[in-house]
Amino acid sequence: MVLRAIEKLFRHEAAGGVALMVSAALALIVANSALSGSYEAFLNSVLSVTVNGTGLEKPLILWINDGLMAIFFFLIGLELKYEIVEGRLRNPRDVILPGAAAVGGMALPAIVYAAINWGNPETISGWAIPAATDIAFALGILALVGSRAPIALKVFLLTLAILDDLGAILVIAIFYTAELKVNYLLMALIPLAGLFLLQSQRSHRVAPALLLGAVMWVLVLKSGVHATLAGVVTAFLIPIHDKNGGSPLHALEKGLAPYVGFVIVPIFAFANAGVVLKGMSPADLLNPVPMGIALGLILGKQIGVFGTTWAIVKLGFARLPDRVTWTHIYGVSCLAGIGFTMSLFIGGLSFASPDLMNDVRVGVLTGSIISAIIGYVVLSRAKNPALETDEETETEAA
Fold this sequence. Notes:
Layout: H1 2-11, H2 15-31, H3 36-44, E1 46-51, E2 54-59, H4 60-85, H5 92-117, H6 135-145, H7 151-175, H8 182-187, H9 189-200, H10 207-223, H11 228-236, H12 248-272, H13 288-314, H14 326-335, H15 340-350, H16 354-381, H17 385-397
Antiparallel strand pairs: 1-2
């Protein structure tokens, strides 16, 4: 009975968002307690994997951000491939509205941040931080609204968030690549060729593909290109259907999702959300980095997602999803301002300074929390036309 209740709890749509919130809250508590020194020392402890002096030697925080997050991006890659080949992104007509909303929702926050940090070469590189949306967090808040949110609204938000993730992957690949070491990148073509071969054979075995993906991850990491992209590339080369009629991609996605949602992402949140509040005042929110991120997430996302959606519909290029109202769209535009995981991740790529990273955490947490509250309030008060129709039918029948 207890095990069944726990299993039901973990399967709830809001569970991933709740796990994130708990991990972030725990990080805040630890970072501002007597354990703060141990917290920092633990994250900065060096972990080495070497053979005869050659290998990888990094602080634990980078193993989390470069290693565990590669698995996170691998799962995103699996989801993207399925959606493009067989799912919501297969029909171009179904992508027009959420696709335009995703573009607007990435561009406007970046513009808001850049406008506030313009002329400051030390901080302008963080322009992409407020451009991302946290799928788990946003869907978790939407799930808390319950039946007031039409099913089509969830599909709209999910498609928007998936395309937002695709945009974030492209941004990381293009703008956050360090000094390129071509020799390692050329060596990475060897495991890549092996992955292509396995896909062409529609192999039902995923272990060889995962091994080749791990080798490619190491080589890409050493090349200067951000290593999480190796996870995306590996995912795109996992067959959806094998020669025996099975689905390696679906099996991996189903097996990985609980570990990513309840282990990897919470660990990332705990390692990256520890804002040090000592010596801070409300005035610190007016510093360019936290203000640019917070306003980008709160105002930029709302204007970008809602404004673009309104323009596309009014111009006649698309229609609102079935039973979705403009109030619903505004609420989802607010939820898109929950950046959290992806925003913290891009923040870590943007800045090496501990002080600037603390500013990033302040901005991301402030913007995400306010966006979540506004989005929840708006959607919880919105009317679901489907429910009203059912109530009217029941009244007439009575």
